[in-house]
Amino acid sequence: MKILVVEDEQKVADALREGLEAEKYEVIVERTGEAAFFRVNTETFDAVLLDLGLPGRDGLEILRAVRARGLKTPVLVLTARDSLQDRVTGLDSGADDYLVKPFAFAELIARIRALVRRGRAAESVIGRLRVRHRPRRARPPAGSRGTGSPRSGRAARRAGQA
Fold it and tell me: DSSP characters for 38-49?
C-alpha cells in the first residue's frame, strides 16, 4: 500500500516514514506544497497524509485543487490547526478525515486503514486489473414529484392524488 506523506517538518516527516514503513506501507515524503501537488497528480497513492502549513502552496489549496481535478484518493489532513473552524474548513475542502497534532500513532494507523477500506469499496481487483465502480443515482419516474417510492407514486396517481 502506497502513502504520500506531505509534511514540511523534517522530524515529523521522518517519524511518520519510519512508523508507516514499520507497518509495511510504502511511503513517499514531500516537504513542499508544489512538490506534493506534482506528485499527487503524476502517481497513484492509496492515501495521502497532508499537513496544511506548507511552504509554497498551502495544504488547503492543494486539497481543493486536486478535488477540483477529480482525484478520489483518500486524504487525511494531519495538522496542528485545531480550532473547530479549521476542522470544518478542512473537511469541507475535500479531506476525508482530519487529525490534530499531537496524535497517537495507533490512532493514525487505524484511520488510514478505515480510509483505505472505504476507498476500496468502490473498486474491484481482478488479477492485475483494478476496476472502479461508478455510483448510480436513483431518479424519480417521469412525471412524478420525486417523493416517496415509485410504488407510492403509482398508488397516488391511481387514487387521483398526484
Answer: HHHHHS--SEEE
Could you give the count of Cα atoms lying within 13 Å of 151 in the half-sphere of its Cβ? 0
**Where in the sequence is the domain holding 50, given as residue range(s)?**
2-121
Instruction: For 11-60, write each residue's pLDDT tens digit.
Output: 999 999 999 999 999 999 999 999 999 999 899 999 999 999 998 889 99
Instruction: Establish if 158 belongs to a structural domain.
Output: no
In a domain, 58, yes or no: yes
pLDDT tens digits for range 59-68: 999 999 999 9
Question: How many domains would you assign to the chain?
Answer: 1
Residue 100, classed as helix, strand or coil, is strand
CATH code of residue 14: 3.40.50.2300
Q: Which residues is 78 bridged to in the sheet?
A: 99
Contacts 24+ apart (CB under 8 A), 26-30: 26/1, 26/2, 27/2, 27/3, 28/2, 28/3, 28/4, 29/4, 29/5, 30/4, 30/5, 30/6
In 19-79, beta strands by DSSP E: 26-30, 47-50, 75-79
